[in-house]
Amino acid sequence: MEWDLKSIGALSKATNVKVTTIRYYESIGLLAEPERTESGRRVYGGETFERLRFIRHARDLGFEIDAIRELIELQSSEEQDCSHVDGIARRHLTGVRNRIEQLRSLESELERMLDQCRGGKIEQCAIMESLADHEHCISDQHEKLDMLLQSK
Predict the structure, then answer these.
(1) Could you give the count of Cα atoms lying within 13 Å of 138 in the half-sphere of its Cβ?
(2) Would you say the C-alpha torsion 134, 140, 143, 147 has a positive or negative sign?
(3) Alpha-carbon dihedral of residues 14, 15, 17, 21, nearest 10 degrees?
């Protein structure tokens, strides 16, 4: 795609990344500081456009910022063996598989809670009882999932 110097708004629209997110990526060094016009307006070229598309796609695939930073650094070593990239992707896949396993456990627990519900009054509700006391659960996997989700 041909990309001339554009404003941050045009970059945002073209990549479907919010302006505040673009500025955040600049502040943490994932994107270089943009060129500026004489009036101080930020302008972005094709390299930034391509980098932001890369970041956006990696984020859509669930890669964390630190992994993306590593991948970007590796892009400057095009002749280097890609085993390091493979390692980053494999670690990410392992994490995804672990979260899927934890989500399946969570699904089973919620299904069990719903199966135990027989209607009636709140004071006798099996779901409320399970939510009030973890001892009623058959697994602790959802606790681990909660910790994972909170750390993101």
Answers:
(1) 11
(2) positive
(3) -100
Alpha helices per DSSP H over the chain: 8-15, 19-27, 46-60, 65-75, 83-116, 126-132, 141-150
Strand partners, 35: 43
Model confidence over 21-74: pLDDT tens digits?
999 999 999 999 998 889 988 899 999 999 999 999 999 999 999 999 999 999
Determine the Cα–Cα distance for residues 113 and 37; give it in Å rounded to an integer. Answer: 61
Q: Can you say whether residue 37 is alpha, beta or left, with left for phi > 0 and alpha for psi between -120 and 50 degrees?
A: beta
Q: How far apart are CA 132 and CA 4, in angstroms?
A: 58
Which of 68, 141, 131 has its CA nearest to residue 104?
A: 141
User: Which residues are bridge partners to 42 per DSSP?
Assistant: 36
What pTM, to 2 d.p., does this model score?
A: 0.76
Q: Is the dihedral of CA 11, 16, 18, 24 positive or negative?
A: negative
